[in-house]
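Running this now, will post back.
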Amino acid sequence: MNGRILIAGIGNVFLGDDGFGVETVRWLTGPDRTLPDHVEVVDIGVRGVHLAYQLLDGYDTLVLVDATARGGAPGTLYLIEAAEPGSLAPGSPVLDGHHMSPDAVLALLGTLCAGTGAAPPRRTWVVGCEPACLDEGIGLSDPVAAAVPEAVRMIVDLVRGEARQPVPEDDRNAAAT
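Update: finished.
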């Protein structure tokens, strides 16, 4: 693989705390933030199908940033490594471009990779935040808004750690051919 990292903010800004991923990547792209050249930050919002197709361009690591209901207190941050499709949440059999969970995006990516010969990211991480409110409305709840700066720090630390990860032997051999 090439060491490229894609950080994708996911969510619907019209559903309260579901906008967490979008707001977090907005902070990551602010004027006082600089990330290495091999890191790309995108606001995907509700365009899950677009994300799956973008991943065909070849990324070593994918970091999804999303509201993630796991039963904790609102504003709780989670760092989840996704081993394979199905490890994030139950998938939905319906392909709806505006309601695709991260798990559904990864499943679609697997199908696209099989059809094109492209390789999926070697590692996929989810930086999630427990939502307080997913009702219609613009703006994050206080606990979720307060979690955004810590999520940014978590992502920056994760990116730095990924940059130091050795490339697996199989990938070095593939790159040499």
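The chain is about 35% helix and 20% strand. More later if anyone needs it.
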